[in-house]
Amino acid sequence: MTFTPSATPEQTAARQQAFDSLPDPTTLVSREEIRAALLDRHTAATQDKLDAARVAICGLGGLGSTIAVALTRIGVGHLHLIDFDRVDMTNLNRQQYFLKDLGQYKTEALRANLKQINPFTDITIDTVKVTDENVPTLFEHEGIICEAFDVPENKTMLVNAVLESLPDKKLVSASGMAGYRSSNLVHTKRVSRNFYFCGDGETAPKPGAGLMAPRVGVVACHEANMITRLILGEEDA
Predict the structure, then answer these.
(1) Which strands form 78-82's sheet, in the order they lie side by side?
(2) Per residue in 2-59, pLDDT tens?
(3) Is the pTM higher than 0.85?
């Protein structure tokens, strides 16, 4: 089946109005209050490393949007969000977006949502398609690159491009997360010096067991946790 949008012009306009009228989060909280809460949980030594970290997330679907939320909540200081797609209704079953975000670029919608969690996170966005040609320059300022694409060919392209042109960058990738098989099949492993893999490595979407929020979320949090470990100096999977 192919999903056909059925929103009326009035509903589309209402979504845009809701997106445009989000409160300014900096009026709700101070940088000092957020940092004090993080320090209470993490201690200064840990939080200083998280504050300084720079992470690029490629693909802002079920994996990438969930990873971005997790890293924002623990106080990672600098995020680079990369995707060329817009939010649609079929994304809401597993991605960190809301009705107000429908029709928005994922980069812009996710940045707005993350700012409602921590408005002082430094977020850079690139609404572009990642290619072999732009990989060397796109990730110039990040030490950790997170692959979070849906399409297997895109995953392979990014992994190969990073390993070939940016071998000193840390790369965290994922595959095998569809359906509702046991979460215990999901694992994280270190593939090579700077390359880490999360997922079960085999489960692909099929009718009745497509990409579903719980299992996609499990894999996304494996990626987010591996990224956190790398930030904090733990390189073993």
Answers:
(1) 122-126, 78-82, 54-58, 144-147, 170-174, 195-199, 187-192
(2) 788 899 999 999 999 999 999 999 999 999 999 999 999 999 999 999 999 999 999 9
(3) yes
Amino acid at 115: K
What angle in degrees, to the nearest 10, is found between the helix axes of 62-73 and 106-115?
20
| Residue reference for tokens 């320059």 | 137
- Give the pLDDT of residue 138: 96
Three-state DSSP at 55 gives: strand
CB under 8 Å, gap of 24 or more: what pairs does 128-131 form?
128/82, 128/84, 129/84, 130/58, 130/82, 130/154, 130/157, 130/158, 131/157
- 3-state helix vs strand vs coil in the chain, percent to 5: 45, 15, 40
